[in-house]
Amino acid sequence: MKFKQVVYKKNLRRGRFSLDSWHVRNSSVAVSRIMSQCIIVRAEMNFMRGAIDYEAISWRFREVPEGEVMPTYRWVYDDDTGELYCEEVGREDAA
Question: Contact at 8 Å (CB) between 76 and 85?
Answer without folding.
Answer: yes
